[in-house]
Amino acid sequence: MGWRVTGPEAGTVDVGTEGAPRSGVTTVDGASPGREVVSRGGSAENAHGAATIVARRIAVKRAKGEGKGKGGDSGSPAAEGRAAALSAGLYVVATPIGNLGDITARALETLAACDIVAAEDTRVTKSLLAHFGIRARVIAMHEHNERAAAEGIVSLLREGKSVALAADAGTPAVSDPGALLVDRVRAEGFAVVPIPGASALTAALCASGIAAAGVVFAGFLPSKGAERKRRLAQFAAGPWAIALFESPHRIEATLADLHAALGERDVVVCRELTKLFETIARIPLSQAVDWVKADANRSRGEFVLVVEGRPVEATATVDAKRVLEVLLAELSVKQASSLAAKITGVSRSELYPMALEAVKGKAAKPS
Known about the structure:
Helix 7 links the parallel strand 10 and strand 11. About 40% of the residues lie in helices and about 15% in strands. Helix 10 crosses helix 11. The protein is built from twelve helices and 14 strands. The protein folds into three domains: about 150 residues, 3-Layer(aba) Sandwich (Cobalt-precorrin-4 Transmethylase, domain 1); about 110 residues, Methyltransferase, Cobalt-precorrin-4 Transmethylase, Domain 2 (2-Layer Sandwich), CATH 3.30.950; about 50 residues. By secondary structure, the chain is α/β, with parallel strands linked by helices. The strands form four sheets. Strands 7-6-8-5-9 form a five-stranded parallel beta sheet, sandwiched between helices. A five-stranded mixed beta sheet has the order 10-11-14-12-13. It has a two-stranded antiparallel sheet with strand order 1-2.
């Protein structure tokens, strides 16, 4: 879920996909009366407030340090003649998923103070850093080189360096590269410090309106085949809400497969979260594909889908009785009731009288 910064001074932020002017208000579409989540907010093009203040502070500090470094223009604090503000370790930094104003003050300070920034895409991260006036040494760390890059980063940590890890957008290692690196760094005994912030997952969940006792985060589904069917079958068997990411070219197929596997449930389609063309709509799964097809723009951008959970059905009493019968052949009433409650999900207070009745009935029968 990316974004880019354009213009001679990185002052214009491209956060949409339709090519419309980057100004005005954001309109959030709904599916039908009574079934939409509607919100209107300011334009996603500018990053004001605390983030701008911190960025200016960083730029001032950097300007004061110009000319003091002896090691060229690597951008590291040490090269600029400043003491590193961070101890050796890996700092996992969440970056905006669209609106640059969502970056945190702590994220900016961390990116400015680290010796090196390891990026999923160096071009994207360099644009982000430039927008906020941060000059830093940036190295590549993506899914194709993660194992080799992890060894290099561990070597840097052994030298006492601090390394920030940044994905193209959102939180690294959440459906993005980084988990292998984090595990390797932790195994070597170095600190792994989370710098939380923007997340497409939590943004979608909080705006979905779907109440659930638990949520299964599926990331991206397998593209096709037996593994995809198996994963969908697992979702159908569970009672929880489901959150997953999807790309534009597979959105229709995924919505159709979800309906086939899960039956009639509501899905909240979240598109281009925090960006200019943000759309959040709650629709029945049976209507979701037609809803996407009704407007070409609805299949553009990046998606988060939140599907409501299946209501938990109480275990049938007859099943509980059968379980009790089996357990009572070997256990006391108290033990059988407790164990049956764990097996069936029926409360012990309901099972205990049933167990007593079963024992009495068995004793009353002629031998």
